[in-house]
What we know:
By secondary structure, this protein is α/β, with parallel strands linked by helices. The chain has 13 helices and twelve strands.
Amino acid sequence: MNMEISIIGGDLRTVKLIKLLAQDKNKIKAWGFENCEELLDFEKKNDNLKIHNNLDEALQNQIIIGPTPFTKDRKYICTHYTNQKLEIQTLANKIRDKLLIGGSVPAEILEQIETIDILKDERLVILNAISTVEGTIEIAIKETQKNLYNSNILIIGYGRIGKILVDRLTAFKANVYCSARGKDITWIEAYGSKSIKYEELNKKIDMFDIIINTVPVLILNKKRLELLNKNTLLIDVASAPGGIDFEVARQLNIKTIWALGIPGKIAPISSAEYIKETIYNIIKERNDNK
C-alpha cells in the first residue's frame, strides 16, 4: 500500500505484522525491537524496515501502530524485545497530531489523540477469540493428565470466547458446563448446553476437572476456591484483573494458569494477518471519509 508507518512495541505477532507490512512495500520505522533477532535479520534483507533505538526518530511518520494489548499495567507500553521502558503518557505527548492505532488502548489516551482501537473491530475480535480458544485447549491438554474426553469442564462466561469454547470442547466429547447470568443462561440452554447460574456455582463447583474463566471480574473467590477439588486445573483467559483470586489459589496449592495474550503466543502469523487486514480496512475507510 506504500504507506509510511511507525510501529512502537509489541510481541511476536507485532514482529510478524512488521514483516508483512514491509513485504507489502510499506516503509516501516520500528522502535522496541533491538533485541529481536528475527527482525534484525529481516532488516538486513528488506530496505522497507528501519529499526530505531531512538524513539523520536521512530515517530517521524503520521501513522503510529502500538501493541495489542497496548498495556498490561496502564502505565507502560507493552514491549517484549527491548530493555527500554516507554510510559504511555510519554508516547501520547509525542504524537498529539498523529493517528494512533492499537488494541485495548486506555481511555485517557483516546481522549487526547486521534485513536483507532482495532479490538473494537468485531471481525478481528472474533478471529482473536478463535485463536484464544485454540490456545486454551492446548493448555488444557498439556497441563492435565487426563483426556478431555469425558472430563468435566466448566466455562465461566458466555461471551465470544465462552461460546466458541463450549462448541470446541463439546466436539471433544467432554462434559461441558457453562456458568453465566441473566439472558446468557437462556442462550446456553437454547443451544443445548448445560448451564449453571453464578449463584448456584458453590453447589457444583467441586465436580470439575478443569475450570476456564473468561470473565474479568472476580468469580472464583476464596469461598469458592476452598470448595474446589484440589486437583482441578484453573485456566484464566480474562484480561486484568482476571476472575480468580490467584493468591488464594496459590495458598491452596491449586494449579492455576493466567493465560494472557494467547493469540500472539500460539498463532502469531495468523494474528498478524488479521491485524494487517484490519489496519488496511481502517485506513482505507478513513481516507474515503476525508
